[in-house]
Amino acid sequence: MQIKCAQELQELGIAIFKAAGATPRNAEGVASSLVSANLAGHDSHGVMRIPSYIEDINSGRLDPAAIPKITRETSATAIVDGASTFGQLGARLTAQTAARKARETGLGSAALYRAHHTGRIGEWAELGASQGMITMATAAGAFLHLVAPFGGRGRALGTNPIAWAVPRPGGQPPILLDFATSAAAQGKLMLARAKREPVPQGWILDAEGRPTTNVEDYFSGGALLPIAAHKGYALSVIIELMAVGLSGGDSVAKTECGSCLFITCFDPGAFRPSDMFDESVERIAGRLKAVKPAEGVEEILLPGEPEARAREQRLREGIPLPKSTWEAICAVARNLGVAAG
């Protein structure tokens, strides 16, 4: 395991993406998001993605210099074209636009289409919450199918994650929900593969539709399973209808990037005085934290506390990376003429 500081990883990521043709602004935007995912403890959406992003740039699928733009909007809604560039850039514009419209009208929604991988979806919910908005973010792929429907044995859905973030007063991290509607994100399978570890029972099927814990079975034509059986399957379907259906992401050519987002922001002050809402949030949080932990549990954590604590620890102690991940990043850097330790 390699331990790297966040600044070193961000600087290396920026240098790699610039060498691959990204504008300085694009390179900084995607590198900061990848490192942010590692800091939050979501390594599956962090810098391990750099080699695959470069692969997509080299194949012409990802345009590193393109700029996402708003193509349609009303007073409360907007559509953002991701321009087949880094999905994090389009996602950031989408979240910022939804938050801006919520400030103006009380509620704001924006949808993104034609985007590359959009990274950790919780980042976009956190962005809205940082501006005082309750924020929901959902993501789905128009063309990339990885997950079997409930009762099925073949791929028909994406991992279709969902995130909610509720702001808290006094600069505290938000209450944060962030999970895929599959038993695991595909990035976690990539991480298990990099570590050469089996995955838990109930995550994947092999190519014949049989349950397995061998991660290579997934990469040999298998499928992910939905989380919580029929419940996760149903939620995944709704997410795809919102993210893909409202953005129009399934209307672009299949040779284009197909990631889609749907983000909605709510201004608590449009419903009741903001200070009264803050008091309610803190009462609920306090009630949960006051519950006596079960045997073997140190304390009750609020949703989002694991990410906040991981961020504090990794900023202080560094980010752990599997040796194979670091070697893959260094190999990409060398191929682009970028120095990497």
Describe the structure.
With 341 residues, the chain is of the alpha+beta class. The chain has a domain at 1-65 and 307-341: Hypothetical Oxidoreductase Yiak, Chain: A, domain 1 (Orthogonal Bundle), CATH 1.10.1530.10. It is built from eleven helices and twelve strands. The chain has helices at residues 6-19, 24-39, 50-59, 87-105, 122-130, 186-195, 215-219, 230-247, 274-289, 305-317, 323-335; strands at residues 2-4, 69-73, 77-81, 107-115, 134-141, 162-166, 175-179, 204-205, 211-212, 223-224, 259-266, 319-321. It has a seven-stranded mixed sheet. α4 links the parallel β3 (77-81) and β4 (107-115). The two termini are 14 Å apart.
Task: Give the key terms.
alpha+beta, single chain, 341 residues, three-stranded antiparallel β-sheet, globular, Hypothetical Oxidoreductase Yiak, Chain: A, domain 1, 11 helices, seven-stranded mixed β-sheet
Top-tier CATH class of the domain at 1-65 and 307-341: Mainly Alpha
Number of strands: 12
What string gives the helices and strands in order?
A: EHHHEEHEHEEEHEEHEHEHHEH
Major β-sheet profile: 7 strands, mixed
- Residue fraction in strands: 15-25%
User: How confident overall, as mean pLDDT?
Assistant: 96
- What is the annotated CATH architecture of the domain at 1-65 and 307-341? Orthogonal Bundle
Principal-axes shape call: globular
How many distinct helices?
11
Widest sheet: strand order?
Answer: 2-3-4-11-5-6-7
Kindly report how far apart the N and C termini lie. Answer: 14 Å
Which structural category do the helix and sheet elements fall into? alpha+beta
CATH fold-level topology of the domain at 1-65 and 307-341: Hypothetical Oxidoreductase Yiak, Chain: A, domain 1
CATH superfamily membership of the domain at 1-65 and 307-341: Malate/L-lactate/L-sulpholactate dehydrogenase, four-helix barrel
* Rg measurement, Å: 20 Å
Helix content: 40-55%
Oligomerization: single chain
Low-confidence segments, given as residue ranges, are none
